[in-house]
Amino acid sequence: ALTFPPGSHSFVLSSLGFTAVAFVTGSLALWAPAFLYRSCLATGQCRPCPDKDTCSSQQSLIFGLITCVTGFLGVGAGVEISKRLRRTNPRADPLVCAAGLLGSAPFLFLALVCAQGSSVATYVFIFIGETLLSLNWAIVADILLYVVVPTRRSTAESFQIVMSHLLGDAGSPYLIGVISDRIQRGRPPSFLLEFHSLQYALMLSAFAGVLGGGFFLATALFIQGDRKRAELSTQGLLPEEAEPEDQIVVPKRGRSTKVPVSSVLI
């Protein structure tokens, strides 16, 4: 029969949810300043820069400040909210992560929709969306620590980091750019077209946030059982099955019994 190590369900699902977080943050980090600048050009609020190599954009500075502030606020708020809810709800950690992702998606969507109408509203929605998005960072690491046994935590952490970057922030900027270029293909170039093409492409990030929230909701279904199994395994109350090649035959009360090699070696 196919067996899974303790905590594998919660670990895999939370890693997929965290990958969605990395997907959204990676796409916003690269394309949000360009999107804000294109919205400024499309509405005529600013003039195009004659030399793109030396052009300084105020939108990049504002977005960078928002990202720094929301990062501190979101991480701190996520830890505190999870700590308080954990006293009454053992599933608090994945539920807070799910609420953060599902809550950030509509605000990021509104930021994209309102960019052409009001720049102030756009920055407000980005601030709220990124704050909710940042609730997950510390909590995901905490989930990994208590659903994975100590001997596998370093491997699990490495796998989660590689997975989140490979499928998240490493590929999302490229994918957003490809979609934006594909929308512009075959149409006469204009500032308005560049703005709308990037606007439609960035909407993928909002949907990725909803998908990540679904993964964290699924994590909440397994978190209690996986945490209990990991604790029992750490205490030696849930012995793991050894592989056939790691077993030797030892006589026990007149019978041959297969036991792990580690249990007889001193």
From TrEMBL:
Membrane topology: Multi-pass membrane protein
Top-rank lineage group of the source organism: Eukaryota
Listed InterPro entries: MFS_spinster-like, MFS_trans_sf
Protein name: Sphingolipid transporter 3 (putative)
GO biological-process terms attached to the record: lipid transport
Key words, A-Z: Lipid transport, Membrane, Transmembrane, Transmembrane helix, Transport
Single GO cellular component term: endomembrane system
Location in or out of the cell: Endomembrane system
TM helices/strands, residue ranges: 12-32, 61-82, 94-118, 124-149, 161-180, 200-223
Main subcellular localisation: membrane
